[in-house]
Amino acid sequence: MIALIDYGAGNLTSVKKALSFLGADFVVPASPAELGGARGVIVPGVGHFAATAALDGAWSDAIAQAVSAGKPLLGICLGMQWLFEGSDEAPAVRGLGVMRGRITRLKGDAEHRMKVPHVGWNALEFARPARLLDGLSTGAQVYFTHSFAAPVTSDTVAATTHCATFASVVERDNVFGVQFHPEKSSDVGLEMLRNFLGVCG
Q: Domains of the chain, with CATH numbers?
């Protein structure tokens, strides 16, 4: 059973549809106490980093405990940003802090006609092999919609360039994150979700 976290930050329905298509058993827990029976956790989300303040406290503690217990955690879009220490978008709001670094705003490039927000399909450039990328090839196209992004660190397994190069897929031990929307990224995105479900067992 996968725990799909609803903290009011959107795209829950599309993630539900993708998980159902893949035949996954999932639940939207009503309280942090319900995470105990889950084999993995997914934190989705779109929009402003301030929305993640709803996860502070009991939810954050329960998710951190699940990670410490070895349960796989996947952050999607805003959910991936929340894995980091914080974001310039909402400086007073803390991230989960399981990934090092801070989220910063992409800067538009008028000369090369690159606009922010970054909306549309773009390529993943693989940095190293990773379980989340199993069966996929560098250059795979996925669907983005965001204005802020994570830095490239040793946890980056794929990067994408739009105005600047940023981490588009991160993976360390049992923690995974994708800046794009796998549930809207056709077969490539479904394969990544399938890989995550495989890690969950």
A: 2-200 (3.40.50.880)
